[in-house]
Every structure is written in structure tokens, then in C-alpha cells.
Design goal:
Layout: H1 10-24, H2 32-43, E1 48-55, E2 60-67, H3 71-79, H4 88-94, E3 98-99, H5 100-103, H6 106-109, H7 113-122, E4 126-134, E5 137-146, H8 155-176, H9 184-194, H10 199-206, H11 210-224, H12 229-236
Antiparallel strand pairs: 1-2, 1-5, 3-4, 4-5
């Protein structure tokens, strides 16, 4: 049975359409997250928000954007609390908009260091997260929160986020290939990896040493957020910008 969204104003409905329109016409070099972040916060009536991209090579959430959160507290998250987070990886595994309460019930969350020493400092109480992928490649996430006195997020909010997901994925995937900033040589090595070539053969074809091939591979995997050469090869098979 399909669900419907009833709690939405005419202004919010218009905002929903504007977000989709903006995502579809984003110019090269734009960060799709940044371009729609404030309006997405408004649409789901959030009080606070953050957005990151997970880098599998470094095993860190990086390139953060925030709304109404203390920068010093976000630094503490990036340096310490992201490694003591009780729910984010479980939310990430859902691959759809999910309430934090579904993963970590609030009474349980309130007993954690993550809540008392990080979330509570900025007043974050109710949360909903959306993680976006291109295959197995992380494109970015949206972590939306409300204050303690506000109602929890509901089906209204998860339905809106899930409805936006295909447009967000398309925009982030399209732009993501442009901002990975591979050098010409790194891209050449990656293309040959995607074709199944071995490192010694790549070195011979490009006239570079085996160790130089490995250096280019390591840098390319870090830039593309890939944990191994199989993921790197798969990322090179994605759609390229015109």
C-alpha cells in the first residue's frame, strides 16, 4: 500500500518542487548538498542539521556542512565522537530515510557518551538521517535534528526525504565525479585498473615504475573514497560528466 503526505503546506509543496528543479539544473562544479541544504532543513522543519561524505579509505566522515550547530562541537565530532557514534553506521546501512529512534531508542541513546557529551551540547534530541549512494560509493548524507521541546520526526519527513532521494542521488553522482580532482596520470592508472590490468602491466604501458603506480592508486582511492581497487574500478565505470 502506498503512503501519502498530508501534513504539508502549499509553501512547503512549492519548496519541494524548487529543490527538485535546482538539483536537476545544477551547474558543473557545484556541491549539490550545499545548494539545497538550507531548503531541505526548512522542508522537514529541522532545528539543526549536518551533512558529511564518508571516505572509506580513511574511514572518516569528511567535508562537513552544518546548520545551527556550534563549530567547536562539530570539531569534537570529527576528531572524536564519530568514532563513538552508536547509530550512524546502522542508519547508513538502511539506505533510506530513517528515524534515529528506530535504531537507538531515545531512552537508550540518553545513556550514551555520544548523546550527553556531543548531541546534548547543541540541543539535538530527535533525529532523522538519509544516506545516499551510487552503487557502493558514498555520495553524502543529511542528518536532521529537532530540539527537545519539538515533536519527533514522522512518516511525513521520511516520505519527503525518500521522494527526494532519486534527484539527490543523480545530482550528487553527477557532480561527485567532477570534484574528485584526479590528476591526468591518476585517471590513466584508474582507467587501466578498471580494464583489469595488473600494476606491473600498467607501469609498463605508462612508462612508470611499479611503486609509482601504487602511489597513484593510493591517492586515487583516497580521493574517491574507495577502500580497494575493486571499488575504484567500479567507481570508474559510473556515468561521466559531459
Amino acid at each position: 500500500m502506498s503512503a501519502s503526505i498530508t501534513d504539508i503546506s502549499s509553501d512547503e509543496l512549492r519548496l519541494f518542487g524548487e529543490i527538485i528543479s535546482r538539483l536537476e539544473r545544477l551547474e558543473h562544479g557545484c556541491d549539490a548538498r550545499e545548494m539545497i541544504f538550507p531548503d531541505l532543513v526548512r522542508l522537514v522543519r529541522a532545528d539543526f542539521a549536518a551533512s558529511y561524505i564518508y571516505n572509506k579509505a580513511t574511514r572518516k566522515f569528511e567535508r562537513g556542512l552544518t546548520h545551527n550547530m556550534d563549530p567547536d562541537n562539530l570539531c569534537r565530532y570529527e576528531q572524536w565522537y564519530q568514532f563513538r557514534d552508536p547509530h550512524t553506521f546502522a542508519l547508513r546501512a538502511r539506505r533510506r530515510a530513517t528515524l534515529v529512534e528506530e535504531i537507538t531508542p531515545h531512552e537508550q541513546l540518553k545513556r550514551t557518551e555520544f548523546y550527553n557529551d556531543f548531541l546534548k551540547r547543541d540541543g539535538l534530541h530527535h533525529g532523522v538521517n538519509l544516506f545516499l549512494f551510487d552503487g557502493n560509493r558514498d555520495l553524502g548524507d543529511f542528518r536532521l535534528w529537532r530540539a527537545k521541546g519539538s515533536p519527533d520526526f514522522s512518516d511525513r519527513d521520511t516520505l519527503l526525504l525518500d521522494a527526494l532521494s532519486p534527484y539527490l542521488q543523480r545530482a550528487l553522482s553527477r557532480i561527485g565525479h567532477q570534484i574528485d580532482d584526479l590528476t591526468v596520470r591518476e585517471r590513466q592508472v584508474c582507467v587501466l585498473v578498471a580494464k583489469g590490468c595488473r600494476d606491473h602491466d600498467i607501469g609498463a604501458m605508462l612508462g612508470i615504475s611499479f611503486s609509482t603506480v601504487r602511489t597513484h592508486l593510493s591517492r586515487a582511492m583516497e580521493k574517491r573514497g574507495c577502500a580497494n581497487r575493486a571499488e575504484l574500478a567500479a567507481s570508474m565505470m559510473g556515468p561521466r560528466p559531459d
